[in-house]
């Protein structure tokens, strides 16, 4: 699961504020950084606007996460203070152990660059070794490990965060307005990897031709020639009537998720500032109703809308955003029998330990199928110390997170699967 830490990314870019610098604190320093008095002293001596220490909710990340929020230059100065603290408290071998930071998943391809050219350039400039760690299931951000001397690591981190600032805060401006007439054509823009050209259009243009034939919707890809920080990404423009787009968007989103290689990665829309004025008042409610995490990043006349969640609810969120933009539909929370509007809750159930591997399936295929069918998050954990179960110690904890309807569906599916496995 992703950490619940707060990220402030929508401040004015003119002030240089961008994605927070997030460090994984080596375990040897966990006790020191867990003490409030030490954090207070560090906050008083560094230049950061905010300095937060938290623990990831993802069980695969045992380290504490230190988040530094500030303008770019102050953020790097705060990093120096933290690294000095490492050296003061205990001798730490930066060359051997390295320093790990977290970056947005969609930045990875930009950081690596075509044929690895970008990451090699950063390594040569900073005299460090930089590697991107394999994606951890359930975590939106990616780990980047940097080996080298402390001063060289600072240079590498500064280069990486300058790239993130240019990429996240300064998207390429594309001036656009929505057509006010429902009878005429309108459009919606997605940000996709440049490597997606062949997949999104399809072999011989098959997918694009099928969408055009079935829904009268065109798919075109625009290059980012003016914005070098996004030279490895495209803008996918889907154009058609309102009805055609509403019908075709689920299939187009499926294809975009296939391109991203992981169906839990973010969907990103590009919206003009003029249209965002009305949309912004509805985003919280769209997020609430669909159980998605929705963030808006601004720059002058454009906004990037980032949507995170399960594939099913991401589709719902995109369609709701599209309807809002096209018709100005207001989305308000109302009392309703609709299960989607239930409050999000968490339920723990236990399952026999011997069945967990088969419930998860090879490469997680079974649990992913259960997640898609139920619409809620499903994770397995070891039992907490002192946790009593009917199975005794031979059990695992299964955590379900979602609305009540989704959780009830997930429980039914799990019980059915456990029953089948017991009969085998």
TrEMBL record:
Domain of life per record: Eukaryota
Xref: SUPFAM superfamilies: Eukaryotic type KH-domain (KH-domain type I)
GO molecular function per UniProt: RNA binding
PROSITE patterns linked to this entry: KH_TYPE_1 (PS50084)
Record keywords: Repeat, RNA-binding
InterPro entries, alphabetized: KH_dom, KH_dom_type_1, KH_dom_type_1_sf
Domain K Homology: 95-165, 184-261, 343-419
PANTHER family, per database record: KH DOMAIN CONTAINING RNA BINDING PROTEIN
Protein name as annotated: K Homology domain-containing protein
Native source organism of the sequence: Stentor coeruleus
Taxonomic classification: Eukaryota, Sar, Alveolata, Ciliophora, Postciliodesmatophora
């Amino acid at each position: 699961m992703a950490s619940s830490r707060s990220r402030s990314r929508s401040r004015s870019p003119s002030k240089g504020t961008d994605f927070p610098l997030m460090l994984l604190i080596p375990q040897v320093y966990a006790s020191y950084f867990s003490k409030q008095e030490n954090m207070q002293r560090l906050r008083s001596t560094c230049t950061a606007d905010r300095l937060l220490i938290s623990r990831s909710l993802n069980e695969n990340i045992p380290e504490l996460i230190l988040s530094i929020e500030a303008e770019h230059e102050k953020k790097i100065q705060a990093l120096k203070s933290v690294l000095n603290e490492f050296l003061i408290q205990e001798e730490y071998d930066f060359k051997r152990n390295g320093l790990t930071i977290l970056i947005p998943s969609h930045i990875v391809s930009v950081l690596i660059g075509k044929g690895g050219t970008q990451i090699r350039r950063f390594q040569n400039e900073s005299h460090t070794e930089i590697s991107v760690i394999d994606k951890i299931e359930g975590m939106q951000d990616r780990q980047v490990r940097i080996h080298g001397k402390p001063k060289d690591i600072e240079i590498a981190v500064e280069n990486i965060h300058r790239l993130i600032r240019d990429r996240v805060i300064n998207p390429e401006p594309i001036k656009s307005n929505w057509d006010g007439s429902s009878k005429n054509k309108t459009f919606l823009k997605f940000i996709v990897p440049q490597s997606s050209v062949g997949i999104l259009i399809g072999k011989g243009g098959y997918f694009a031709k099928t969408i055009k034939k079935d829904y009268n919707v065109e798919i075109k890809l625009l290059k980012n020639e003016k914005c070098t920080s996004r030279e490895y990404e495209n803008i996918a423009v889907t154009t058609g009537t309102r009805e055609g787009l509403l019908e075709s968007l689920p299939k187009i989103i499926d294809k975009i998720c296939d391109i991203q290689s992981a169906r839990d990665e973010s969907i990103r829309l590009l919206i003009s500032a003029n249209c965002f004025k009305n949309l912004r008042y509805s985003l919280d409610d769209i997020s609430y109703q669909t159980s998605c995490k929705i963030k808006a990043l601004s720059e002058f006349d454009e906004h990037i809308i980032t949507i995170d969640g399960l594939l099913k609810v991401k589709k719902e969120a995109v369609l709701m955003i599209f309807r809002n933009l096209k018709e100005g539909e207001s989305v308000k929370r109302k009392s309703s029998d609709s299960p989607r509007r239930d409050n999000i809750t968490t339920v723990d159930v236990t399952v026999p330990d011997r069945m967990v591997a088969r419930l998860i399936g090879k490469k997680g295929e079974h649990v992913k199928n259960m997640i898609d069918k139920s619409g809620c998050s499903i994770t397995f954990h070891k039992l907490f110390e002192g946790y009593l179960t009917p199975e005794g110690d031979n059990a695992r904890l299964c955590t379900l997170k979602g609305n009540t309807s989704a959780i009830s569906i997930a429980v039914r599916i799990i019980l059915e699967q456990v029953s089948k496995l017991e009969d085998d």
